[in-house]
Amino acid sequence: MPIRSALVLGGGPTGVDIAMIHEGALMLADGTARTAADIDLVSVAGLGFPSDRVGVMAYGDARGMSWITERLDVLSGRDLIAWSDSPLIADCGRTGRRFADWGKA
To answer: Cα–Cα distances in Å, from 81 out to 52, 67, 73, 76, 104?
Structure first.
């Protein structure tokens, strides 16, 4: 269970945040979601993500790709399949793009 592993690692909402950010990045990459703002809206209105953080992808942008990557590296050591590398996160880290930049012309 990837989320259970995240909860143990994160000691609270941080682990769940990483799971949501990771899944959001996968959704952007495969076209399931058109923009990070779409995911942010659903995360706040539908999933109860704290509205003071704007949304899960905006929160990821604010924390930075290195913060996300460090936590995903630890989790992938526990379960490589559930926490596979996200090419979109890697690309954002390399290029300095943010999730908010995806899906824009």
So the answer is: 32, 20, 12, 7, 30
Angle of helix 87-95 versus helix 13-30 axis, rounded to 10: 90
The CATH class of the 2-100 domain is mainly alpha
DSSP string, 25-88: HHHHHHTSSS-HHHHHHHHHHTT---GGG--HHHHHHHH-HHHHHHHHHHHHHH-TTTT---HH
Distance of CA 84 to the CA centre of its chain: 12
Tell me the pLDDT tens digit for each residue of 7-34: 443 434 457 889 899 999 999 999 999 9
Where do the domains of the chain lie? 2-100
pTM for the full predicted model:
0.81
Sequence length of the chain is 105
